[in-house]
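Ticket reopened. Same input as before:
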Amino acid sequence: MIPELGQFALILALCLAIIQAIFPLIGSLNRTPGWVALARPVAWGQFVFLLLSFSVLTHAFLVNDFSVLYVAQHGNTELPTIYKISAVWGAHEGSLLLWVLILAGWTVAVASLTRDLPEEVVARVLSVMGMISIGFLSFLLFTSNPFERLFPVPVQGGDLNPLLQDFGLAVHPPMLYMGYVGMSVAFSFAIAALIGGELDSAWARWSRPWTLVAWMFLTIGITLGSWWAYYELGWGGWWFWDPVENASFMPWLAGTALIHSLAVTEKRGAFKRWTVLLALLAFSLSLLGTFLVRSGVLTSVHSFASDPTRGLFILIFLLIVIGGSLFLYALRAPSISRGGGFANLSRESMLLGNNLLLLVITALVLLGTLAPLLYDAFQWGKISVGFPWFTSMFVIFTPPLIVLMGAAPLTRWKQQDPVALLRSLRLALGISVAAGIVVALPMSDGSVSTGLAVALSVWLLTTLLISLQQRLKHKSGVGGLLADIASRGGRSYYGMWVAHIGIAVFVIGVTVVTQFDVEKDVRMSPGQEIQLNDYLFRFDGTVNRKGPNYHAQRGTIRVFREGKEVAVLHPEKRTYLVQSRPMTEAGIDAGFMRDIYVSLGEPLDNGDWALRLYYKPFVRWIWLGGILIAIGGLLAASDPRYRMRVLARLRSSRPPADAIAAEGHA
Amino acid sequence: MPRFVRYLAPLVAFIALAGLLYKGLSLDPRHLPSPLIDKPAPAFSLPLLQQPETLISNADFKGQVTLFNVWATWCVACRQEHPLLMQLAKQGVPIYGLNYKDKRDDAKRWLQMYGNPYLANAFDAEGRTGIDWGVYGTPETFVVDKQGIIRFKHIGPLTNDSIKRDILPLLKQLQESDG
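Engineering reply: fixed in the latest deploy. New output:
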């Protein structure tokens, strides 16, 4: 009975989504306050029903209700509680349910935090979000119902994919979805603005904090995914250019372009068409990512559940949403006014340059991801686009990106005198070129690529320091800094600052770990010792261990440096009982400056094992960079100017018709 | 009007992309039988992975029912599939491998690290043989009968299900037939 409640709640949510999509929009166009006022309560209603539905599914997992097909497939009585909960989104149906729940969550967040915006704008935004919700809810109900029953009821469930029985992967999808779905807010604001024909800097200011928060979640999600791949796949790699990883990376790239473009539109009124297009693009790429993951068009480790009929459904949905919005754009774009002009050398031109670079990278990632499909469709033969392609692309496009990233904060809006710019940049230029050359010299490292990477990260760090120093020239000490952070517009700057530092940290991490990591595949017998760099590894054999739902062979490796023990590592080889799938758990001693990473290979004769030993310097910096980038996004989104005041002024000067609409709501 | 047309560019690009994706759906390799099924396996002669001086050819498969598995170290899904191949090898299923577009040292290290389920591995550095066999992406697994005819093709990593449902019954059936 309870699972049926979940399904009824889903159906009711769909009905409310339909109301939310139609009435507020029409009401906002023909000025019917009652219809406009429907938007908020209906959004809340939808959220409540989806939350109910989600709780029902979670409950079914917790009480092992195997009469529900989805639970029977992915649940198990022996699963630890945390994975019973994460199993809810461990496969297709449940992860879609999480998707729509998060969409409803963003919708009510928009509904409650936009009291100061014109009512008809909010109504249109919520209406567009309702339309997206209709698409996903009908997809869920008609092709992927998570509440389908199963008779006869099995006594035990099929268990969660062991790859997913891990903390990192338990929290990775919700974070990623927060990002994907969050991009729908910027999208909806853009569509609402296109419908209303009011694309001004107020529109940019309204969508900016939402975009920043969504982008922050996307950053966290991608960082978590990379960290998971590192410790769970047992290869010590942190990014695989897998189609599904690319699917999350493309909206991130477009989102990065969008937050910069929004900044220009808000401050200078320029780039309006471009910003709108990016807002449409960022969410379209999120949807495309969903399509790629769920349709099975591309084979990947991640496509745990794929089905072509579902693929067709999503494709039609994509055509309506993306095709429709791009058509609307084509209709409206010619009438969008040009914003403030700018000279060839100005902060605007640099941001535009970076925007274009980001889009080129996005396009190339898309091309690389779809290349196998493209070749197949045109029968050009078969190819596999692997690491080398993506890596060479990054080596070409990242350097100019970082050069501009360093220079832009020191450049004036509208017009910049080249001589003055060169004067403020020459110190940073000197230091970074010198640092690059020193590293590239034969006696230190000798590799040009390391030299270039070091020069770029030093360039980014020094320009950021100079920019900070210029900003604080007339303020004194820590007090001045804190006051500046608290000021209006201050956090936008510090958010940028922290996020750019994050990029530098990331580049350093990637460079050092690719250039200086050491790996060794060895056969070791118990008691044997092997030297790797400064570290001595001693293998103390393996013991059998029983986990809650798996058996493991657990190795013990002691690591010594200069005679002192620095770490005891326990890599494991697990066999999960239900799916009888072996998994490796790496033993990692994490550190700020280096990781020591050991994974168990195959057992050989006489208690010997094949082992893989790694020394990975600075690998943590990769994720530290990701965290800093996310903190930067949060800082920028928390800028006080997004809260109320300006908008309150707007409200008081609103024409009477809107006031009536507001009354109608109250 | 020309201005309007200019802003249609993103829409046109998207429609082209959607067309490609639609084509991709119908091309779904898991649901299209390979044209090679029930045809003689394409001939090849390649160096062995472990001993480059020795050659292996499809003639070496003859007289037994074999699995022919296409894999590479750069393929994450192969990593996921590998333990199942180890199990099959332990059960006595003869498995030959095609190491596809890989580096010899990496592949040898992989086998040393994760175990070697293969009777022998052909080393296909340029991927020519893979193309002849219609390899879409790694991993792929072919079932070749005693006469050297391809009887089945599995695309993507093998799973417990696919082994129980498709591979093992077919192997049994082919082994029992003398033809």
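Chain B has one domain: 36-176. The helical segments of chain B are 2-6, 9-26, 76-90, 104-114, 128-132, 160-176. Please confirm and we'll close it.
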